[in-house]
Structures
1.
Amino acid sequence: MLLPDPDPERRPMPPCRHILALGALALGLGACGDSTDPDDDPLPDNAATAVGLTVRDNVEASFDAFFPARLLQPLSTGPAEDPCVTPSSPADTDGDGVPNDASYTFTAPPCRYTGVRGFTLDAVGQLRITDPAPETAGFGATVTLTNLRFSLGAEDSDLSYSVTRNGTMLLIGGPAGLELNTELQGLRTFTGLPDAAVEHVWTVGFDPEATLQINQPLPSGSVTVAGSVAWLRGDENFDLTVTTATPLHYNAACDDTGQRFDEGELRVSGTFGDSPGYVRIVWEDCGDDPGIEFVAEE
């Protein structure tokens, strides 16, 4: 399931008919209807907005790792059984939808998508998915990203950007709930500003409202996030903490949009240069991007 520029977020958005908040790979491009206004960002270079968008997108995208088939179809709403890549090995001994050990190499085309929030998306790089218990059906998986780059091109080149990710995600759990332990390094470009090097080390938990079934999409449920974000962009060097103020609610009925949370709040806390405080990210409806604001603390 990483970080649109503030300026692109202000332009009118097309209908969200063909967007999926990407897979944990995509780590994120959000949905339509962003309520964030960079003009209200009190920090230099819209740092709070940039951090908030980055965390928002990574959380929304990481959610797809709970159902690994979604990792193979970034930023589209078609069936998970129709990916743009093929596995190096199709073996799935226990039939749980997680391959024994398969690598997927993304190239564009065929991994090119149009109409993604007004962009053309190219996905390139490698994803590896392994089953920690290939003889026993379950929900576990290990996901490794190697130079997985998402490039988004717009007619106005100033709006184009890319994000490249490396790292691992470990999925554990059972029918009563799931946990994703994530350690990812990302490099995100910003027009007119230095690239941001970002490391996310956090745990994402999922508490379903119905018993989970192997090889079936997730039911609605609650999501919590806890961990750290290291942010380096030019002179910005922030060590931040992510906490869940109100659990995010995943709404399984939101099946035609990439943004599938209809409530919840995360906070990204720390000292932003000389400004202590936190970035508040609030989801209110599926299909709409959350609001992002900086709250200063004394």
2.
Amino acid sequence: MDLENRKSKLKKAFKENFNSDSTDLFSSSGRMEILGNHTDHNNGLVLVGAVDLDIMAATEKCENEVVLISENYGETKIDLNNLQKVKEEEGTNAALIKGVLFELKELGYHIGGFKAYADSILPAGSGISSSAAFECLIAEIENFYYNNDSMDRYDMAKIGQFSEKEYFGKPCGLLDQCGVAFGGVNLINFKNLNKPVIEHLSINIEPYHIVITNTGGDHSNLTSHYAAIPEEMKSVAKYFHKKVLAKVKKEEFYAALPELRKVVSDRAILRAIHFYDENERVKKGFRSLKNGKIKKFLEMVNESGNSSMEYLQNTCVPGSVTQNINLALALSKHLIHDGACRIHGGGFEGTILAFVHEDELEYYVEAMAEVFGKENVHQISIRNDGSKHLNLNI
């Protein structure tokens, strides 16, 4: 559905549900993790891009409450005078909205009520972060209505992360929220969480196209596996009396291996090796894109994927004979003769990312769709802005 038709649909749905006319339209994109798999939570480097799939909402200001109706999740009402965390709300839209509003207030921003009818074209389970898109959508509406568009983009990302971790109940770093809040392609160095170094880049990767494939699986029971990755990396850092691996020099880490093995698991050490090498790949990949060396960039993507499989070990659920991601990667490597592929996002179940030459694109998409379903294979593009206010008028 094109933009004008989506606007018409949202305006009509808002009118039908709220018996009034919407006054504004907001859009919040999904994000693509280009390089930097599981590095942000240990203050590493990432290369992240906003994508051209989004959550869109028609809205109107109101007093004292937030009322959001979603095609997929029904109606959610939030009383602005009651923003305390409720354990039973974990995993719901109510938790995400309350978490965003609470943290906005804590950081000194103004909050207020609104009505919204939301529609998402982010494919379910696609790994392009619908939760971060939703968090930033709520923050962007509050930013426009009550803060004169003054909100710092990094604050927006941190607010989203707070909501997801503390209210929604899902451990997460800042990659997803930064990708959505900033838009475009960004190299982000999280060494100083209070002031990350962010470098924006406009890219042209022709003649390659970006394809994501949702390989299936359920993330709901995988929280312990996600949480183990940052915990194990931090257990290595703790040996050196540091909180995160970014504070430990790579040479110091390797020199300590004999004694380190007595304190932490081999898997923790392998995950630390991935962290150090992945940071180097992010830098090399960014430089390659900046200098128009697409082939070198694709090398880094392939190396990143191999490292996630071998060292990070997040391409399948431990002990499971169902290995959707590994199968998708193996098939992609068979199909792609000019391009690259890697796991996308947190892992264990979910999505892979591929850069496919235009000469192989149609064949690749058809072959992946035959195995994983046409509805699970999506060609995407980079979007130059993240969360934003749009002109409602057609």
